[in-house]
């Protein structure tokens, strides 16, 4: 379902055909924040980025949708170890002894040792949901689970409109549908063999 379709559905459920886009987009943004927290570990949130780091550059830029790093590898399969900035001195000691280490600084990683030659990196990470906006009209949740957007926005609208009578029901329905999506495992992304009905 597209962003405009979601907005239209929420207006219909609320019986408020004139509710301004600005109000609905605020509710949508609140729901996306909740979905980002709830679906961070969902299989459809995993991404892979590959890039080449130039020789002598110890700062690696991160994807803008990064929520959490899973693994960082270079070359054929060298795994890099992450350290907190407060442990960076001891991490560099490990790097001097043949290890490969990094720490995060905002939207980039600091690498040690610094690549001595152009190096191919592969980053596996969990991604934030791409927010629906003027540049993007759908994302994987709006495509496969538009009911999460609709019921999430209805729940938020009950808070916004101080409609306590509807809040409990819409909260329960949103939670029920979200639990269904969270219950999906890795196997749910694979096609199942067709079932044969016996006469």
Task: Give the secondary structure arrangement, pairings included.
Blueprint: H1 3-14, H2 21-38, E1 46-53, E2 59-61, E3 66-74, E4 78-82, H3 88-96, E5 101-105, E6 108-112, E7 119-127, H4 140-144, H5 146-160, H6 164-182
Parallel strand pairs: 4-5
Antiparallel strand pairs: 1-7, 2-6, 3-4, 3-7, 5-6
Structure commentary:
The protein is of the alpha+beta class. The protein has 2 domains: 3-39 and 130-185, no CATH class; 46-127, no CATH class. It is 39% helix and 22% strand. It is built from 6 helices and 7 strands; from the N terminus they run ααββββαβββααα. The chain has helices at residues 3-14, 21-38, 88-96, 140-144, 146-160, 164-182; strands at residues 46-53, 59-61, 66-74, 78-82, 101-105, 108-112, 119-127. Strands 1-7-3-4-5-6-2 form a 7-stranded mixed sheet. Helix 1 packs across helix 5 (146-160) and helix 5 (146-160) packs antiparallel against helix 6 (164-182). The chain starts with a helix and ends in a 17-residue tail after the last helix.
Please outline what is shown here.
This protein is α+β, with helices and mostly antiparallel strands and 199 residues long. It has helices spanning 3-14, 21-38, 88-96, 140-144, 146-160, 164-182, and strands at residues 46-53, 59-61, 66-74, 78-82, 101-105, 108-112, 119-127.
